[in-house]
Amino acid sequence: MSDGERGDRTGRNAVALAEGLAKLGLQCAVEARAGLALLLPETDSVARLAEPDTRRAALALARQCGFTHVAIELPNDRRRGSSANAPVSGD
Q1: Each residue of 39-79: pLDDT tens digit?
Q2: pLDDT in tens, 8-19
Q3: Is residue 4 part of a domain?
Q4: In a domain, 42, yes or no
Q5: Which long-range contacts (CB under 8 A, 24 or more apart) does 4-13 make?
Q6: CA angle 12-24-37, nearest 5°?
Q7: How far apart are CA 57 and CA 34, in angstroms?
């Protein structure tokens, strides 16, 4: 059993949050970083997260799962398997 499956000692539970988000129709991986829940949505779920009611429901669910903050990492070409990278200062 991984840390995410059992939550951490502060009561935060990334697995429960991911399951709850799936019930809202959002397909997201969730990473716990202290009080922050980092959502990594599938491309199809990004538009749904832009809807105010859906976003409010996701935030409420995150609080119920013990998180104080939520961030969303939008999909990019690298996550989809492309070799395209953003330029870095000094390149």
Answers
A1: 999 999 999 999 999 999 999 999 999 999 999 998 874 45
A2: 455 689 999 999
A3: no
A4: yes
A5: 4/30, 4/32, 7/66, 8/32, 10/35, 10/66, 11/66, 12/37, 12/65, 12/66, 12/67, 13/65, 13/66
A6: 30
A7: 21
Bridge partner list, 14: none
Cβ(62)–Cβ(70) below 8 Å: yes
pTM to 2 decimals?
0.71
Structural domain for 68, as ranges: 25-77
Q: How many domains does one find in the chain?
A: 1
* Token digits of residue 62: 């995150």
For residue 44, is it within any domain?
yes
Tell me whether residue 82 is in a domain. no
pLDDT at 76: 75
d(CA 35, CA 25): 24
